[in-house]
Automatic annotation (TrEMBL):
The keyword Cytoplasm applies. Signal peptide: none annotated. NCBIfam families: PRK00977.1-3, xseB. Bidirectionally degrades single-stranded DNA into large acid-insoluble oligonucleotides, which are then degraded further into small acid-soluble oligonucleotides. Heterooligomer composed of large and small subunits. This is Exodeoxyribonuclease 7 small subunit. The lineage of its organism: Bacteria, Bacillati, Actinomycetota, Actinomycetes, Kitasatosporales. It comes from Streptomyces incarnatus.
Amino acid sequence: MTGKVDEALSYEQARDELIEVVRRLEAGGTTLEESLALWERGEELAKVCRRWLEGARARLDAALAEEEAETDKEAETEAE
């Protein structure tokens, strides 16, 4: 499961699947090949989560910058 399918995952879906991957890796009992596949999947899921979090951070930063600009504009108007 890679590419466009991963892009369609919500943050919560990717996070929950990543938790399951980690649980399975920590539990052991898998072959080396299965463990490698799980590790690779975990890396893909972590990237999906990271993209969501970076997007959320960018939106927050933009909203804060907009709010700050409005506050500055109001302060300038009041000073006049």
